[in-house]
Amino acid sequence: MIELRKKNLILLKIFFLIFILSNCTNTKSNNKITQSSDIELYSKGLASLKKGNFSKATLEFDDVFLNYPFSSLSSKSEIMSAYSLYQKNNIKKTVAKLSSFIEMNPKGEFTEYAHYLLAMCYYAQVSSEDRDPSTSIKSLKYFKLIITKYPNTVYAKDAKLKIQLLENTLAKNELNVGKFYLRKSAPGSSIKRFKSILQNYQNTSVIPETLYRLSEALLMLGLKDEATKSNALLDYNFPKNDWTKLSKTLLENESELNQQKDNKFSIINYFKDFF
Predict the structure, then answer these.
(1) CA separation for the pair 72, 75 (Å, rounded)
(2) Whole-prediction pTM
(3) Do the beta carbons of residue 112 and residue 153 sit within 8 Å?
(4) How far apart are the C-alpha atoms of 157 and 96, rounded to whole Å?
(5) Out of 31-35, 197-201, 241-245, which region has the weakest mean confidence (pLDDT)?
(6) What percent helix, strand, coil does the chain show, rounded to 5?
(7) What letter would DSSP give residue 31?
(8) Do residues 45 and 143 touch, judged by C-beta distance below 8 A?
(9) Domains of the chain, earliest start first
């Protein structure tokens, strides 16, 4: 997970550079009509950011859009301030600043990057061991929004990858809850969780185990026909998977157990005839 966070940070920096370079032309072209003081403040913010002095960079970028709200650098400085906060790992303030920016600039020049950075704020808080799925759900929401609103951007390509990772995390979380209910002998509750995974996270890595656990829960309720259907679905889609083999064994053992019960009752009925 630590290695993944490092990769995400590198990727975010690459997108940040793309964001900066893509807007260099606009900044240069407006230098003639922009007061030197806001350019100077913006340049100081960039210098502080490069040095890793994120607190100072935040203040300098804030000075631009607070003191020069009509400057061509105002909106860009607000985004740069949010990015500086993100680098400082002040996620709460970053989210607040980005949310405000998006609300005030729904179709602005820098709004697509604001959406991406907002999604990354929630993504940075996701843990594979976290039982609370709220941050994963929020991050997933914003990454899906990026794909919908900005499908042809570099952000959309990364968003697709993040969505796969998030859906896997959410599916694993749901699977663990379902398994907990199985251990507590509550198959009805576990079945709801397993069916939710099959409906909402069909392309995740936990589908084979989910189908196996579903069969297990159904057999606990005596629903052998439904369990057989689940096993058939598992066998059709994942014929060589280890969970498929276990599912077949599960059903075979259940059949043998039922046969033994039938034989037991037959013997009892046989001896009843002697009395």
Answers:
(1) 7
(2) 0.74
(3) yes
(4) 25
(5) 31-35
(6) 80, 0, 20
(7) T
(8) no
(9) 7-125 (1.25.40.10), 174-272 (1.25.40.10)
Q: How many residues can be counted in the chain? A: 275
Are 254 and 219 spatial neighbours (Cβ–Cβ below 8 Å)?
yes
Nearest to 102 by CA among 88, 87, 121: 121
Beta strands in 163-263 (DSSP E): none
What CA–CA distance (Å, rounded) separates 164 from 161?
Answer: 5
Long-range contacts of 111-116 (CB under 8 A, 24+ apart): 112/146, 112/149, 112/150, 112/153, 112/155, 113/15, 113/19, 113/79, 113/155, 114/79, 114/82, 115/142, 115/145, 115/146, 115/149, 115/150, 115/155, 116/15, 116/146, 116/155, 116/158, 116/159
Collapsed DSSP state (helix, strand, coil) of residue 130: coil
Query: Using alpha carbons only, how large is the chain's radius of gyration in Å?
Result: 28
122 contact partners, CB below 8 Å, separation of at least 6:
95, 135, 136, 138, 139, 142
The span from the CA of 193 to the CA of 114, in Å, is: 34
pLDDT in tens, 86-138: 999 999 999 999 999 999 999 888 999 999 999 999 999 887 656 678 899 99
Side-chain-facing half-sphere of 270: CA atoms under 13 Å? 6
- Give the angle subtended at the CA of 45 by the CAs of 42 and 48, to the nearest 5°: 155
Q: Report the distance separating Cα 118 and Cα 110, nearest Å.
A: 12
User: What confidence category does residue 12 fall into, taking pLDDT thresholds of 50, 70 and 90?
Assistant: low
Residue 231 DSSP SS3: helix
